Amino acid sequence: MDAPLLSARELFTEAVRAVLETWPVLQIAVDNGFGGVHSQQKADWLVDVVQQYFHENANLEQSEVEDFLGDLMNNEFDTVVDDGSLPQVALQVSQFFRQCQQGKLSEVRGQVAKLSQKKATGRAKATQLQTPANEEEEEEEEESEEEEGAEAMDCEEATERKSSTKPHKEQDPPPPPSADTDEDGWTVVRKKK
Predict the structure, then answer these.
(1) What is the pTM of this model?
(2) Which of 21, 103, 110, 179 has most Cβ atoms within 10 angstroms of its Cβ?
(3) Where is the composition biased (Basic and acidic residues) (predicted)?
(4) R_g of the chain, CA atoms, integer Å
(5) Can you give the pLDDT at residue 51?
(6) Residue 172: strand, helix, or coil
(7) Do residues 57 and 23 lie in contact, with contact meaning Cβ atoms separated by under 8 Å?
(8) How many structural domains are present in the chain?
(9) Residue 136 Cα to chain centre, angstroms
(10) What residues have CB less than 8 Å from 36, skipping those under 6 apart?
């Protein structure tokens, strides 16, 4: 669909999608599968549910929208939103709804385009985080971890060889720490000197 041909309702749906796709809490929940194996489908469904909620309820207050979004995140993604972003998301969606009702479709289109651009920029930055320099650092870390593991194994093998050369009779367990009873009947355990 071409953006200029969208009706107010369709444009509002696209606005809700843009807001939710740039909401870090939801994206983290989706990326990490907090909603189960169908997390992405739930996120898509969330767009439809939110736009439907606005169309079926007149004169929604921002707090009602916050509660609704918070409940959806909790119920569908086992996520409690406590980073302060919930009021911002609720306000943004509410503003888009009012603008669509008032016929300010060109303003909404411009804001949706900015959000889509922000989303694309965020994804580009995320993919740039894995650069060849980072890969080299990771390889070096893995090699040093492997060397440390090999050294630890060498130490364990040397200890095992030393202990296996002694006869079993010489490997008696250490004596227990000395214990005294004080006048109240308590047992006092003292450290071996």
Answers:
(1) 0.60
(2) 21
(3) 158-172
(4) 31
(5) 93
(6) coil
(7) no
(8) 1
(9) 26
(10) 42
Note the pLDDT of residue 58: 83
Q: Do residues 32 and 55 make contact, with C-beta atoms less than 8 angstroms apart?
A: no
Q: Residues 31, 32, 37, 38: what is their CA dihedral angle, to the nearest 10 degrees?
A: -40
Centroid of chain to Cα 21: 15
Whether 56 maps to a domain, the answer reads yes
142 within domain boundaries = no
User: Which position has the token pair 């720490």?
Assistant: 177
3-state secondary structure of 131: coil
Which tokens in the block code for residue 51?
Answer: 């736009």
Query: Quick one: tokens of 36?
Result: 């189960």
Joined together, the tokens standing for residue 33 give: 């599968």
CA 12 – CA 109 distance, rounded (Å): 9
pLDDT, tens digit, 9 for 90 and up, residues 9-68: 999 999 999 999 999 999 999 999 999 999 999 999 999 999 999 999 988 999 999 999
Token readout for 81 is 């939103």
Rounded to an integer, what distance in angstroms lies between the CA atom of residue 190 and that of residue 177?
6
Burial of 1 (C-beta count, 10 Å sphere; 0-12/13-18/19+): exposed
The label of the residue with tokens 């969330």 reads 46
Decide if 173 is inside a domain. Answer: no
Number of H helices, E strands in the chain: 7, 2
